[in-house]
Amino acid sequence: xxxxxxxxxxxxxxxxxxxxxxxxxxxxxxxxxxxxxxxxxxxxxxxxxxxxxxxxxxxxxxxxxxxxxxxxxxxxxxxxxxxxxxxxxxxxxxxxxxxxxxxxxxxxxxxxxxxxxxxxxxxxxxxxxxxxxxxxxxxxxxxxxxxxxxxxxxxxxxxxxxxxxxxxxxxxxxxxxxxxxxxxxxxxxxxxxxxxxxxxxxxxxxxxxxxxxxxxxxxxxxxxxxxxxxxxxxxxxxxxxxxxxxxxxxxxxxxx
Length: 256
Ligand code: MG
Prior knowledge:
alpha+beta; Creatine Amidinohydrolase; five-stranded antiparallel sheet; four-stranded antiparallel sheet; binds magnesium ion
């Protein structure tokens, strides 16, 4: 039978902790370097150089054929955007970067969203703030003895009260030795019994909220996911370790 969750050994957790910390460091460096006029391809190559110089490799490059070092999703793009020589960052663009690395056989996976230059409209600012809040709240629910659906419910409630669309096709996941491990962690409640959380599970929690409806489509490139209504989308992701007590966030430093 296929496993429904994975409890990692202390040795594995050591490795996962290092990979996650490195992914977070790279995420923060990249966020600081994203500037108007830069092509998203150059940004992707910069990320690749950073990952290589740290002795790691991209966990995304080549994954089911993904062509980028990281995912760069702009404005109405939700996730899985690919750096391009024809696309340049401009002031006010909403950019989501998702960094996945493999360090010595262990995976770090983390994402953040931000605005180039920092200044934006009220709605985008609200989308960013509430998606981050939902991630924090979801993490607080990731305690031993709780279920995956407790995380989902916490995140869903926040999106609903803010009247944001919750992306349904893409979800959080176990993550540690493989990029995608069981269980899946939807940002909404599915109404079926889900896995109970146990110490030693390492999870990527990643709310994706849209200013408009939940509906998304995939571009002809086979990767880029964007909102059908063309409205903006935000995405934040942390990896956490379930412990006997409070969850340990593995992808510090805090991104906000
Ligand atoms: Mg992920």
